[in-house]
Amino acid sequence: xxxxxxxxxFLGAGRMAEALVNGLISSRLVSPGQxxxxxxxxxxxxxxxxxxxxxxxxxxxxxxKASDIILLAVKPPDSDGVLEEIAPEVTKEKLVIxxxxxxxxGAILESLRRGGTTHHVPIVRAMPNTPALIGEGxxxxxxxxxxxxxxxxxxxxxxxxxxxxVEVKDESLMDAVTGISGSGPAYMFLFMETLVEAGxxxxxxxxxxxxxxxxxxLGAAKMAATSTKGLGELIAMVASPGGTTVEALKxxxxxxxxxxxxxxxxxxxxxSRELSGTN
Length: 279
Known about the structure:
By secondary structure, this protein is of the alpha/beta class. Helix content is 54%, strand content 13%. Helix 7 crosses helix 12 and helix 8 crosses helix 9. The two termini are 39 Å apart.
């Protein structure tokens, strides 16, 4: 097992960090004693200690010192300060995994250098999404070459504990990952909300419309995930000639739905590049 005897430290105890801690422990990949957590919010530390029985620290450098794998799970504005603080404790044997949106590997290394690091540190960038909170997440990752096969295996093991992992081979593609899966749940929720509202307009109660939409979305996702057919073929299975679905699909087509979605993703990707300073 790639995480056997490894200590994992979380810098930040927010919702995503908690989801990962819960997933790692629930899947028995690690024991609570292998996990350390730091956060400036003392209430979050008390919750993590009591709920998961992990070790908690007030100082970030204490977590970095005690950990083989360091997960940077703080807000983007706080990341530079945290990296500079932990730099003296980040040896070249440690693996740093960053969950910070828009923070490039080059920027992470620069922050570590400002803190005093003189050697190269293996770094993985990761973009999980909110379904990780229920163990159904999708995480896009990019591992730089210094991580090697072992570092990549460890990173995948961490995120597979809360869903599935997709590796991209070029760091610039992390912006596309952000635009598709990082932001994607919000797109899905918006479409479901719109369907519910349409159902209400047609006379359904909100409760019935919501039940129909949620189960339809879940069933469609499961069908797409398990079918050997492509998405276009699955659409055709529902859209019988002369039927109701065809009429609805015509409206989507005439309204330019594909162009709207493409433009929305492009806007998210553009913002991700702006945050990373690569645009």
